């Protein structure tokens, strides 16, 4: 059974085939809807079903409440049409020629920078272009239709190699392999680029970046791209971790600050250890931002990390005057087991 889906804004028609979700149908036909985890956990793809019926699919109640469902909202990464649909998306745009590909990739290097953080470099096939926007991610494809998603930490100008910041998850099937078994030259299969977390260059407002843990990865890609292209936005990065050892790449943003007068780096530790001899900011990373900015009405904020950090930040920042439409997020859903595609 196939169903017609009218996507708004813009009234673009796509067709859902073979039990595709609304998001899958849109992506296949070259339209980008905001999305992140694609497993019903982050809420980035929430849209309103104006006409028609859907199977809501599996999702987390924290991402879609019963009240929202009663108002016609659904998570488009999970919702499958049961009739022709008319759907209002948060944002809708063409893919601008960025092609989603499935490719082999060779593990070029593995560098452990913290107890639970591994930097993986993947080499793509020679002569195979891989275009992406800073902030996007890839899936690593596993057996039985499973995958794990990781943000790209490098810039498009260095896309012969893809840099991933992999956090070890207790009981994680894939991350356990990465930390304990995987060797250089291992061949993996990847799919991407995916996701809609990207820099809105057309907006001239100063920028605040908020990263939690390995949420630094896509923000690193965006900042390095901005600096290399000499984008003159005022930028400040708040990077929150538990203790000093979790701040796994501090010298890089410190160097950005030294070399670029429009960039500021503020690390924040929530639980510094006595051995850290820490004299910097202490507490939750979102609190450091609202302590420093009593009025966020003239800023845009990019946040990447845990759903709790992002949701808490949203409430706090809006109360400080941030325009909700200027809060761009990428929610990291850490899973002990891979998820099926």
Give a description of the structure.
The structure is a single chain. The chain is an alpha/beta fold. The protein has a seven-stranded antiparallel sheet with strand order 14-11-10-15-12-13-22. Strands 19-18-17-16-20-21 form a six-stranded parallel sheet, sandwiched between helices. Strands 2-1-8-4-6 form a five-stranded mixed sheet. Helix 6 packs parallel to helix 7.
Please identify, by name, the CATH architecture of the largest domain: 3-Layer(aba) Sandwich
Give the helices and strands as they follow along the chain: EEHEEEHEEEEEEEEEHEEHEHEEHEHEE
Query: How much helix is in the residues?
Result: 10-25%
Mean pLDDT: 91
Could you please say which CATH topology of the largest domain applies here?
Answer: Rossmann fold
- The portion of residues forming beta strands comes to 25-35%
Number of helices: 7
Low-confidence segments, ≥5 residues, pLDDT <50? 336-341
Annotated CATH homologous superfamily of the largest domain:
Nucleotide-binding domain of ferredoxin-NADP reductase (FNR) module
Tell me the major beta sheet. Answer: 7 strands, antiparallel
Q: Strand order of the main beta sheet, please?
A: 14-11-10-15-12-13-22
Distance between the termini: 20 Å
Oligomer state of the chains in this structure: single chain
Radius of gyration: 20 Å
Identify the overall geometry.
globular
Count up the domains. Answer: 3
Query: In CATH, what is the class of the largest domain?
Result: Alpha Beta
Provide the structure class: alpha/beta
């Amino acid at each position: 059974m196939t169903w017609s889906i009218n996507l708004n804004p813009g009234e673009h028609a796509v067709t859902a085939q073979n039990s595709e979700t609304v998001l899958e149908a849109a992506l296949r036909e070259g339209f980008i809807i905001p999305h992140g985890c694609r497993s019903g956990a982050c809420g980035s793809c929430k849209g309103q079903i104006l006409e028609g019926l859907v199977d809501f699919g599996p999702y987390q109640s924290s991402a879609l409440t019963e009240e929202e469902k009663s108002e016609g909202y659904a998570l488009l990464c999970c919702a499958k049409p049961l009739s022709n649909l008319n759907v209002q998306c948060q944002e809708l745009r063409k893919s601008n020629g960025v092609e989603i590909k499935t490719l082999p990739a060779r593990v070029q290097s593995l560098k452990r920078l913290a107890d639970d953080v591994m930097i993986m470099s993947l080499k793509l096939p020679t002569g195979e272009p891989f275009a992406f926007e800073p902030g996007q991610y890839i899936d690593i494809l596993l057996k039985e239709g499973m995958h794990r998603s990781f943000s790209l930490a490098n810039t498009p100008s260095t896309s012969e190699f893809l840099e991933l910041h992999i956090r070890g998850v207790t009981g994680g099937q894939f991350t356990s392999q990465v930390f304990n078994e995987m060797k250089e030259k291992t061949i993996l299969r990847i799919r991407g680029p995916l996701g809609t977390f990207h820099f809105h260059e057309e907006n001239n407002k100063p920028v605040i970046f908020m990263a939690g843990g390995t949420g630094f990865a896509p923000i690193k890609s965006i900042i390095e791209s901005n600096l290399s292209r000499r984008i003159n936005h005022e930028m400040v990065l708040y990077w929150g971790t538990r203790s000093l050892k979790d701040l796994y790449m501090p010298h890089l943003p410190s160097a950005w600050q030294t070399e670029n007068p429009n960039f500021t780096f503020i690390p924040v530790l929530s639980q510094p250890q006595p051995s850290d001899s820490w004299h910097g900011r202490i507490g939750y990373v979102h609190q450091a931002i609202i302590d420093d900015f009593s009025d966020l009405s003239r800023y845009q904020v990019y946040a990447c990390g845990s759903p709790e950090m992002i949701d808490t930040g949203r409430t706090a920042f809006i109360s400080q005057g941030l325009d909700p439409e200027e809060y761009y997020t990428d929610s990291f859903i850490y899973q002990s087991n891979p998820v099926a595609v």
